[in-house]
Amino acid sequence: MYSKQGFSNLPICMAKTQYSFSHEAAKKGAPSGFILPIRDVRASIGAGFIYPLVGTMSTMPGLPTRPCFYEIDIDTSTGKVIGLS
User: Fold this and answer.
1) How high is the pLDDT of residue 80?
2) How confident is the model at residue 72 (pLDDT cuts 50, 70, 90)?
3) Are 48 and 9 in contact (CB under 8 A)?
4) What's the pLDDT tens digit per position in 26-63?
5) Which residue, 2, 81, 78, 7, is CA-closest to 40?
6) Is 48 helix (H, G, I), strand (E, B) or coil?
7) What is the C-alpha to C-alpha distance for residues 46 and 62, in angstroms, rounded to an integer?
8) Band of the pLDDT at 70, cuts 50, 70, 90?
9) Which residues pair with 5 in a beta bridge?
10) Dmax over Cα atoms in the chain, in whole Å?
11) CATH match of 1-58 with 3.10.410.10
12) Signal sequence span per UniProt (predicted)?
């Protein structure tokens, strides 16, 4: 899928349990003969990597190019905060 879009040379970044090479923390160390269940593959094109989702991994949304705090201000005549809509 990403190869057809020209992203086949991006590095792959994978997060999983730190206790095992498998996806199961109970299988300590370097177990063998396991299958790593990848439930989805996503791309962070702006950051420059592809990441498979293993198990019940939660992800965070990306941030905008221009942070929203630039649009927040205080109206000095009323003392009200503006730009939080």
Assistant:
1) 94
2) very high
3) no
4) 888 777 888 888 888 999 888 899 999 887 777 777 77
5) 2
6) coil
7) 9
8) very high
9) none
10) 69
11) yes
12) none
* DSSP summary character for residue 63: P
Mean residue pLDDT of the chain comes to 85
DSSP tag of 66: S
The pTM for the full model equals 0.58
3-class secondary-structure state, position 55: coil
Q: Which two tokens stand for residue 50?
A: 């592809």
Name the residue with tokens 């396991």. Answer: 34
Sign of the Cα pseudo-torsion (57, 61, 65, 8, in order)? positive
Q: Which two tokens stand for residue 25?
A: 């923390």
DSSP string, 12-47: B-----TTBSSS-TTS-B---S----EEEEEEETTT
